[in-house]
Design a protein that fits this description.
disordered N terminus, mainly beta, single chain, five-stranded antiparallel beta sheet, about 25% strand, N-terminal domain of TfIIb, about 80 residues
C-alpha cells in the first residue's frame, strides 16, 4: 500500500501535512529530504528546517541552497 496513511511520520511530522505544505515564497510544492530533515523548495532554492517535528516555514529560517553547506554535506 502506498497511500500516506500507511507511511510512518517523517521527523515526527504527519506525512499528510508534508503533502499539503507549500513554499511560502513561491507557493510551489516542497520535497521532503529525509536525510537532512528538511523541506526543499527547488524553485526558491531554499531548504526549510524541521525542528522538533514542526516544519519552520519562514524564509528567514530557511537554508539558501545556492550557498556552500556549512555542515559540509551536499547542497
Amino acid at each position: 500500500m502506498t497511500d500516506s496513511s500507511s507511511r510512518p511520520a517523517h521527523s515526527g511530522v504527519d506525512p499528510r501535512l508534508l503533502e499539503i505544505l507549500i513554499c511560502p515564497q513561491t507557493r510551489q510544492p516542497l520535497h521532503y529530504d529525509a536525510e537532512r530533515g528538511e523541506l526543499i523548495s527547488p524553485k526558491a532554492k531554499l531548504a526549510y528546517p524541521i525542528r522538533g517535528g514542526i516544519p519552520v516555514m519562514l524564509v528567514d529560517e530557511a537554508r539558501d541552497l545556492t550557498l556552500p553547506d556549512p555542515d559540509g554535506g551536499a547542497a
